[in-house]
Amino acid sequence: MQEKPIFNHQADIVNSAIRFINAWFKQSKTITGELNDFFILPGNKVIGKDVVIARLKGIFGQSHEYVGGRYDIIDVNYELMGTEKGMGFVEGVAGFRAVLKNESKIISGPFKLYFALQNGSWKIVNIEFPGFGY
Q1: N or C: which terminus of the chain has fewer CB atoms within 10 Å of its end residue's CB?
Q2: Is 3 a residue whose pLDDT tops 80?
Q3: Does the residue 37 lie in any domain?
Q4: Whole-number Cα distances in Å, 101 to 26, 71, 131
């Protein structure tokens, strides 16, 4: 008799956050794999994933590269709403050096990535990250 595997929600949220942060430091297109199809912003404003992707491309286009990216995850929390839905977040601090043509700039601060569980997968539904703005 085979037992049903136990899903580790906290590990899944943390792993998704780590993939997002590492893709951010590399300015990688793989960052989009962690994003939900829509984002929920303060004031119940909803925007599509395509708007967020366009914003990320604009931010990444301002610097040649990011160097020395570091982060610390301080807190992880989630709440299940039934077996198929949930909300959660990962928060911490992150920093990196943005290299421009003739200069470099250190960007650092707190971050908080908000997640929603849908169809068995945790996806980012809101981003608060150093250097990012809607």
Answers
A1: N
A2: no
A3: yes
A4: 17, 25, 18
The whole-number average pLDDT for the span 97-122 is 92
Q: What share of the chain is helix, strand, coil (3-state, %, to 5)?
A: 30, 45, 25
Residue tagged 């908000």 (tokens): 114
Q: What is the CATH number of the domain that holds 20?
A: 3.10.450.50
CA distance 64 to 100: 6
Question: Which domain range does residue 37 map to?
Answer: 9-61+73-90+112-128
Q: Does 102 fall in a domain?
A: no
pTM: 0.90
Q: Which residue has the tokens 């929390």?
A: 77
Into how many domains does the chain fold?
A: 1
| Domain presence at residue 95 | no
Report which secondary-structure segment, H or E, holds 35. Answer: none
Strands in 19-120 per DSSP E: 38-41, 45-48, 65-80, 86-99, 104-118
Strands 121-128 and 104-118: antiparallel
Is residue 115 within 8 Å of 123, Cβ to Cβ? Answer: yes
